[in-house]
Amino acid sequence: MTGGAQGIGEAIGRGLAAQGATVALVDIDLDLAESVAADIRHAGGDATAHFVDLADRDSVNSMVETVLQRHGNIHALINNGGLDAQPGLASDIDATHWNTLIDTDLSGQWWCTQAVLPNMKARGYGRIIFMSSSSIYIGGRTISPAYLAAKAGLVGLTVGLASQLEESGILVNCLMPGPTGNTGTPMDPEDVPVYLAEHPLGFGGTQPLVDSVRYLLDSTGDWVSGAIHNVSGGRLRGR
To answer: TM spans, by residue (predicted)?
Structure first.
């Protein structure tokens, strides 16, 4: 579980641990990840914490090696880590802004996936889930095009990997979250009434995403591959 120290990643990690899964919480904020892992263990679950810088391929490879040494196998990889939606006008995007978002939110997900594939292929089993964003179909006046490009790239990565890995017993899918209301960059207070008027399901919190991950990792997801799951509370319709 990358990005497992807070927000959606923390919620998914806690939810899976509560169902008996052994969870490796991976994050650039190791202290926070260790705090969450300790809390899970205190509640009777099984969790460890590990450092990773997703923009650094060597860091990713070292993290996966450590997780394998600690746990033996990797049953599922949930690629949730990354930078939240960043502001940025197209005219102001420089190389540092572009590279930071692409390296962290797209390339980092691929480095993680590539690193776990040998173990999954050797076992003939694996589940990989990417976390994209409903914003890629909507855009925004202040959302950086680099962020949207990275998140859109995860959809292509899902489709490409799924078509090549199914024969190895590895299923790859992607979640398309909407605003949870309690994670990520807060919505401008002036925009909240407008959003709620157009989206009567409101903000769903993290639980719908936890439930979606459980569905894909359980036997219920054994015939689901290359799917882009719309978990947006009506923010996206017709997709």
So the answer is: none
Q: How many CB atoms are located within 10 Å of the residue 182 CB?
A: 13
- Residue count of the chain, please give it: 239
Catalytic site residue from 125, 147, 195, 215: 147
The pTM of this model reads 0.94
**Number of neighbouring beta carbons within 10 Å of residue 14:** 20
For residue 237 the two structure tokens come to 């319709």
Q: Is 195 a catalytic residue?
A: no
Q: What angle do CA 132, 138, 144 make, to 5 degrees?
A: 70
- CB 174 within 8 Å of CB 125: no
CA 101 to chain centre: 15
Task: Give the N- to C-terminal CA distance of the chain in Å, as an integer.
Answer: 26
C-alpha gyration radius of the chain:
17
